[in-house]
Amino acid sequence: MAAYQLRIYTINRGMMDSWLGVFNGHIRPLHERLGIPVVSSYVNADRTEFIWVRRFDSADDIASKEAAYFASPERSALGDRPTSHIAKMEVRVMDGVEATAGVA
């Protein structure tokens, strides 16, 4: 069963536009190339939180996929650019739930 990561990042004040450039220009494409689809991403109204969801084939795949991401030359080339934007990071692993007939 698929597993998802809900990732909530508190972005340093005034850095959201810069973060979105790094995310959309580098992080999201690299995730897609490595088989870690980004299901959705959001910015809250006051523009201090960036919320996104990644999908994995199973919870067992998370560690190996993350290791491949951090070991990639593309991620290494970014250096501390991603982390320099982030004041706080929360990560929650969630299991997918199959649709159930008759549930309101």
TrEMBL record:
<protein>
    <recommendedName>
        <fullName>NIPSNAP domain-containing protein</fullName>
    </recommendedName>
</protein>
<feature type="domain" description="NIPSNAP">
    <location>
        <begin position="4"/>
        <end position="94"/>
    </location>
</feature>
<dbReference type="InterPro" id="IPR011008">
    <property type="entry name" value="Dimeric_a/b-barrel"/>
</dbReference>
<dbReference type="Pfam" id="PF07978">
    <property type="entry name" value="NIPSNAP"/>
</dbReference>
<dbReference type="InterPro" id="IPR012577">
    <property type="entry name" value="NIPSNAP"/>
</dbReference>
